[in-house]
Amino acid sequence: MGMNQIKIANIAVGPNQKPFIIAEMSGNHNKSLERALEIVEAAAKAGAHALKIQTYTPDTMTLNIKTGDFLIQDEKSIWNGRNLYELYEQAYTPWEWHKPIFERCKDLGIIGFSTPFDSTSVDFLESLDVPCYKIASFENIDIPLIRQVANTGKPIIMSTGMANLAELDEMVRTAKENGCKDIILLKCTSTYPASPDNTNIVTIPHMKDLFGCQIGLSDHTMGIGVAVASVALGATVIEKHFTLNREEGGVDASFSLEPLELKELVTETERAWQALGRVSYGPTEKERASIQFRRSIYVVKDVLEGEVFTEENTRSIRPGLGLPPKYFDVVIGKKATRDIAKGTPLNWDMIG
């Protein structure tokens, strides 16, 4: 067992395992259960280890008021002009869909779990026996919710978007004090979509040292570059929004990966993880065979016994079976101890 390894259902998550990839469906089912199940299948086929949904209703999230605080007024937002209630109505995953979605995950050998947003959704998810929980960035200050989730004793994956250090400390302590032994924090920038220059993934190793737990990335940037780089910085979990086809729209479609991109994410994050290795200098086992292709000192014209080695009859060339090139100046001006044919690698016996 590697340091800090966590078991989620039947999958080990940790630095000694390839990155744990979570496909986040969120509202990309576009209010169709059939599409939701297709998304599960596409995620499994692309190699994701888990599929996540969100458990709330518009009424557990907000009030149906179309003015003031409840209206989204942001020119840059893809949801500008809508009220919060409408947004959640479009995005939410009906509770009666949860069971078929989780069952399809199980059939396909991936982990199905969810983000609860209030106490009723935690009770509901417990009734479905989910193997772990996610706390969303916007809820990471909801201490009563974290307390309730921690009481289940299951692993918790928490997004850290917007939380300052004091808030992070409070959420981690709350989880631990209420019975959660396995915590994974996800570095997260809560803008949708996020830009790489606003992502600050060098925070990952710092956060890992600070909280002594696994760190991952909840990534809303386009493409997979940021996720691959985060693995090099020690991320063990990558969460990405996922859809079948961005063109078909959906609340989060614009910053979601499509199936081929998710497959690429799985492949490339695993490559990044494999490449980490350990601190290593000198030829690796696999490189030993290549040493012969280095340069070394050869006789390049026939030399007779007693003849002097010069820059005309001796050169540093490939392959690497003669003396290292650093001895070239030592060799020049010395005499040959025997006849040497052109193309012979030089060794000390031949030099007088």
Quick recap:
This protein is of the alpha/beta class. Helices cover 31% and strands 16% of the residues. The mean pLDDT is 95.
Report what the structure shows:
- By secondary structure, this protein is of the alpha/beta class.
- It has 2 domains: 6-57 and 92-276, TIM Barrel (Alpha-Beta Barrel), CATH 3.20.20.70; 285-350, Antifreeze-like/N-acetylneuraminic acid synthase C-terminal domain (Type Iii Antifreeze Protein Isoform Hplc 12, Alpha-Beta Complex).
- It is built from 11 helices and 13 strands.
- The protein has helices spanning 33-46, 58-61, 84-91, 95-107, 119-127, 143-150, 165-177, 203-211, 225-232, 259-276, 328-331, and strands spanning 6-8, 11-13, 20-24, 50-55, 111-116, 133-135, 156-159, 183-188, 214-219, 237-241, 296-299, 314-317, 344-345.
- The strands form 3 sheets. An 8-stranded parallel beta sheet has the order 5-4-3-10-9-8-7-6.
- Helix 8 links the parallel strand 8 (183-188) and strand 9.
- The two termini are 59 Å apart.
- The mean pLDDT is 95.
Name a few traits of the molecule.
single chain; 352 residues; alpha/beta; TIM Barrel; Type Iii Antifreeze Protein Isoform Hplc 12; 8-stranded parallel sheet; 3-stranded antiparallel sheet; 11 helices
Which secondary-structure class do the elements indicate?
alpha/beta
Order of helices and strands: EEEHEHHHEHEHEHEHEHEHEEHE
List how many beta strands DSSP finds.
Answer: 13
CATH superfamily of the largest domain: Aldolase class I
User: What share of the residues lie within helices?
Assistant: 25-40%
Give me the oligomer status.
single chain
Q: What spatial form do the alpha-carbon principal axes imply?
A: elongated
* Span of the ends, CA to CA: 59 Å
The helix count comes to 11
- Please report the first level of CATH classification, the CATH class of the largest domain: Alpha Beta
